[in-house]
What we know:
This protein is of the alpha+beta class.
Amino acid sequence: MQAATAPTRHDQATRLLHQRGATATPARVRVLQLLLAADAAMSHQSLQQAAAAGGQPFDKVTLYRVLDWLAEQGLVHSVAGHDRVRRFSLMNAHHAHAHFECDDCGRLFCLRGGLAAATPELPPGFASDRVDITVHGRCAECAAAPSPLPGK
């Protein structure tokens, strides 16, 4: 009996697109592959660099269009860091979530857990579209490194 092999990131990306009834174009699949492999949200520039390092560079405009399309389809979401750079990550099953932004390296991570306790009560007649919460501090990698500044 042959053991089942784990799906590749290419397979996972293709499946995500097909679940939405979308065409799995090479650019869409490649962007999703990069986001599946990422441990943190990725900027347009970091996606371009990762694609080029993998031997499959993107045209800037193509990458912007793919990211916008993936966001419109609900496959990825973006959040702007303190530097106002949009970073993208895969949409998780429970979209309402907080983020952690490392004040040292600038990486942005999606956090698990609900936001029920952090959702304020709205005045009568108000309707909320979303709640954005970002926790600031030092990621595990930066916290383990010696601090370049005394007292930090």
